[in-house]
Every structure is written in structure tokens, then in C-alpha cells.
Design goal:
The chain has about 160 residues and is an alpha+beta fold. Helix content is about 40%, strand content about 20%. The longest helix is centred in the C-terminal third of the chain and has 14 residues, at about 115-130. One of its GO terms (biological process) is regulation of DNA-templated transcription.
Length: about 160
């Protein structure tokens, strides 16, 4: 898809705050509010904007603890990988999941109210996914940055 400078500006703006009105966005971009609405609709329909979400303070809802987990699997059989991928994507506690190269096979970011809740989830993961050989966990001591913003350059380079 060809993205022009206006589209790129819009993508940066809505990533920073998707609750901005078309009028507010129009002031920053230099287009009319109706042009902004048409562009945003097109960006959503074409899948450039995958979804809109609110960023919630994890402490405010009793989920202050994060874990960075590396999973190592036994075999890379397609059906076993599909089973694990499905399990990971269905769990609300799993914030992000990456299939990676290197010493481990998956890296996941997990949120939990405490270590006991995390331990229960990981026990269930191992029970329901016997292809998981082992996992290592890093407990996040301080959340320095949280976000999913993708930097969009204003030109196409």
C-alpha cells in the first residue's frame, strides 16, 4: 500500500493517542476533518491500523508484575508448534509472544497479579503443552517503557 505524508502523520498521531477527534488530527495534519475520517477508515479497512486499544496502568488493576519468559521446545513439528501458538494467543496473561531464533524458541511477556498466579499459569502451560522442554523466567523489577508504537517515517525511506 502506498502511504503518503498525510497517512504517515496520521499513523504517528493515532498511535500516540487514538482518542483524538478528526478535528484535532486535522489541525496537526493540515487536512479537513472529513478527509481525516476517510483516510482513517481506509487505513483500518486495509489493515494498516490493525486495531485501537487503550493502555491501562497495570498497577491500577492489580497486575503489577511482569515476567519475561524464554520457552524451549522439544520438537518443531508443525502440529505441536500450532498447538503452543494457539495456547499462547488465547491466554490473556500473555501480553506478547515471539517465535525467535537463538537458544530458545519462544519469548513471551506475561503479566500476573503475583508470582503464585504466574506459577499456576506456567504449570498449566507445561501440562497442556508437553512439547515445552523447559523455560526460564526473568521477573521485571521496574517497568521502564510500555507500548506498541511503531515509528512511521514521514517519507517513504
Amino acid at each position: 500500500m502506498d502511504l503518503d505524508r498525510f497517512d504517515r502523520q496520521l499513523l504517528n498521531l493515532v498511535q500516540a493517542d487514538s482518542a483524538q477527534t478528526a478535528e484535532q488530527l486535522a489541525e496537526h495534519v493540515g487536512l479537513s476533518p472529513s478527509a481525516i475520517q476517510r483516510r482513517l477508515k481506509r487505513l483500518r479497512e486495509q489493515g494498516v491500523i490493525a486495531r485501537d486499544a487503550a493502555i491501562v496502568d497495570p498497577r491500577a488493576i492489580g497486575r503489577p508484575t511482569f515476567f519475561v519468559v524464554s520457552l524451549e521446545i522439544e520438537r518443531e513439528r508443525p502440529e505441536l508448534l500450532a498447538q503452543l501458538r494457539e495456547w499462547l494467543t488465547k491466554r490473556a496473561e500473555v501480553q506478547q509472544a515471539f517465535y525467535v531464533t537463538g537458544e530458545t524458541d519462544f519469548v513471551i511477556i506475561v503479566t500476573a497479579r503475583d508470582t503464585e498466579a504466574f506459577d499456576a499459569m506456567m504449570s498449566q502451560l507445561v501440562q497442556e503443552n508437553p512439547n515445552v522442554r523447559r523455560f526460564t523466567t526473568n521477573v521485571v523489577l521496574n517497568l521502564l517503557k510500555q507500548g506498541l508504537t511503531i515509528p512511521v517515517p514521514l517519507d517513504d525511506k
